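Two proteins were folded this term; both appear here.
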Amino acid sequence: MSRNRLSSTTVHIMALDGTLNVNSLFMFASFLGITLNPADPNSSLVNSAACTASSAVAKHFVEFHVYSFTSFLFSSLIASCLKLAITTDAKTGQIHHTNNSGGGGGGGVGEVHSTGGNVNLRLLQGGILASAGGSISGCAFLTAALVDLVEIKLGTLACWGWYTAAAIIPMLILVPSALVIYIGLLFYAFNR
């Protein structure tokens, strides 16, 4: 078995496994966030009425958690389907021909080799991009929900309390930075 055949299949399966594992954790976090009642007055740390978050913030908190959960579920379902397609193809030996192969099934440009057959590279890339898009939007919605949670628990951003700023600023720096790195590496992987 050539190095190219083994590495492309293994890398794709490992990437899909990673997506599924991370999405599972984030889906669990989103689900816990949905069950949390942030509007409970007994669990708020806000001392000033002017800094108390409005009911709209609490509604956005729930909305963003639902959107996050939905995005991670979408991403996980796409990743599961892709992984199933790759592993089923490898086990059964079915060959999926593309129009780029120039006729026979001889490993054209538009195919990814697995151990038992070929999977259309364009469909695989499209599925991975869709899955990554779901993960990225899920992270964005989860971050927005956490900002709302901080506003409910520690005070609104308009008050710029120390604890509110200390909770939100690192999150708004680290999460987008990680997403930029993730997107950059994703495009790097597609251009190799």
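Next, the second protein.
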Amino acid sequence: MADPVQNIPPHILALLTRLHDESTAQESALSRAGIDPAKFHDVMRDKFIALDKDKCQFIYQLSRAINAKTIVEAGTSYGVSTIYLALAVSANVAATGGKGTVIGTEYEHNKATKAREYWQECGEIVTNVVDLREGDLRETLKENVQDVDLLLLDIWTPMALPTLKLIQPKLRHGAVIIADNTVQFAAEYKDLLDHLRAPGSGFMNLTLPYSNGLEMSVYLPQ
């Protein structure tokens, strides 16, 4: 299968392969063991919960296609998908000029610390464009966010709609919103999907046939 992530330093590709393998192994173990809903957040506190590799490849190619230079990632976790976004933004800046940034958000300090370690392994092609904001994103995204090209929602489902409502006034015309696992967690995403799909919302929506669903919405307000 073709891989859109091209001309990437081998050490970054090797790191991404390792991180995806670790994430997949964790997910398989969790699937076998099952999770007590009452303990869900405690169990997931130290887990990757990384975006699937094919989805990461897609958001990389999408970011290149729309020449995204300002991206907001809601739910950075250990920073795997952030690497793809940063690589795309760096490539876009190199190709067409200007400045670029990937604004990451992470509530768990330990995850944020580990993510920064992985980005340091990648080098300046990633670290130079990432702005990681720790804490409650409802506070950390209030300021210094504008002209957003792409918003990735890979976060605890109750936070998805509040995040979108916070960022929506800062989206450029034609900005893209990506939300993960929208088929698997359709009930949990109901408020978000109702908002996106409501008549007059300004969003054009399509559910992509990736594992567990990937919602792609384009912001085209009248």
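Residues 98 and 203 are 27 Å apart (CA to CA). The beta strands are 70-74, 101-106, 130-134, 148-153, 171-180, 203-208, 214-219. These notes refer to the second protein only.
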